[in-house]
Amino acid sequence: MFNIGDKVVYPMHGAGIIEKIEEKEILGEKRKYYVMRMPIGDMKVMIPVDNIEEIGIREIINDDEMQKVLQILKGDKTKMPQNWNRRYRMNMEKIKSGDIFEIASVVRNLMLRDEEKSLSTGERKMLNSAKQMLISEIVLVSNIDQEETEKIIDEAISF
Fold it and tell me: pLDDT tens across 15-32, in order?
């Protein structure tokens, strides 16, 4: 169970802060929801309290784990399938896991691949989405703004 003020990650959406816990009746059923504010886009998301394990909600990373994310971003591109469809599915599974280290490797690999040969529209959307998830969590961990965080990510990945 999380509390108001906790910083959490909602897989496929990014990181945010729980602003309140409220009870809502939807389709005749009363349930408790976390109301989470996302730092990027100032979006609010309602998450059913009784589904947090299924969804994979987790606390944001700490400073040590943040350093590991930066090391992953600085690392070399890992081997990926040449087939676009297989590569896309493999990367999507990593993103859906909600694991920040997997998401960092997807961002690194796609950015490096984009330098070699430009990405398809689908992979470009995937890169942008994964990068936003990464940025949203780093912003909450390090208390720096979105632009500065994006600069840090771009500088970590050496072309």
Answer: 999 999 999 998 999 999
Sheet of strand 58-59: strand arrangement: 44-48, 29-37, 14-26, 7-10, 58-59
Q: Which residue in this structure is represented by tokens 């990464």?
A: 134
Q: Which two tokens stand for residue 8?
A: 């959490």
Tell me, what's the pLDDT at 158?
74
End-to-end CA distance of the chain: 42
pLDDT in tens, 30-75: 999 999 999 877 889 999 999 999 999 999 999 999 999 999 999 9
Going along the chain from its start, the domains and CATH numbers come out as 7-59 (2.40.10.170), 63-156 (1.20.58.1290)
